[in-house]
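worker-3 :: picked N(4)-(Beta-N-acetylglucosaminyl)-L-asparaginase
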Amino acid sequence: MLISLLISSLTLLFPLGHSSLPLVINTWPFKNATYEAWSTLKAGGSVLDAVEKGCARCEMEQCDGSVGYGGSPDESGETTLDAMIMNGDTMEVGAVADLRRIKNAIGVARAVMEHTDHTLLVGESASVFAENMGFIAEDLTTNKSVNIFSQWLKGNCQPNYRKNVYPDPSKSCGPYRPKATVARSKRARHANTHSHDTIGMIALDRDGHVAAGTSTNGLTHKVPGRVGDSPIVGAGAYADSAVGGAAATGDGDVMIRFLPSYLAVELMRAGADPSAACKSAISRIKRHYSEFFGAIICANTTGHYGAACNRVPGFNQFHYMVSNSESDTPILKSVDCF
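worker-3 :: tokens ->
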């Protein structure tokens, strides 16, 4: 009995898990992004540099078609990008949403943080800002995205994210008009588990400085102008160098309502280990949306890390990448969803 109590006490003081700094952790098996961020840290770059370069690598490689140009066309066939980056030392944030014509969304997000007093720029104005900052305007459309869009049109615009409109959105394309009476949804509509896989990344250096960031092209066939959780501070990602960081991925329209990344960091501040903090953040959403698709990664300033995900059909395990001084090379990790 005494030994059990002692072990429990030690577990509270020194949570189980991997501990070593520096650390890079990111959502999904985006190994090259992890490597880019880790190499940046090892070369003496800052945690902000690491997050920016890691996410930018995914933007250029069009990770899983869900990050960067040429993926997730909206209802009008256009690809738009969302991204954010957060400095855990100063609590400064830069973010862009509905960004058009610019491939390097995470770079523009950092420019918002470093060259304005603002936090978030959106739409056409964000693109003009980016061009003024020296980013190159390019067409984000590719043959692949054109094909995705044309197939969607041929299939009567299915799936889409409209409700309480006519013509019937489950059978027809728009333009849509609102119905006179709004019916309450009997059941929430859930995002396809393959329709979006944001990259979310957390980086910590040897001194415990923390940065976090995200980049995505959003939800395939979204209503133009839609912004998900990725560029929203506390939802897509959060960092505080006094505690650690977190980053989320999944159904952004649901997850944005619960600020899971902020919640996870606050739970770690209160003493929860990263795995428990991640699980609690997912549990909070599950109470209201039991079948939502989502996952979160968490890391604290001692180098411990964890992840959690909600179990839904076709999504029983969440894969993520880790690089730290124990491995010195990106390692694929997984966690069973609950």
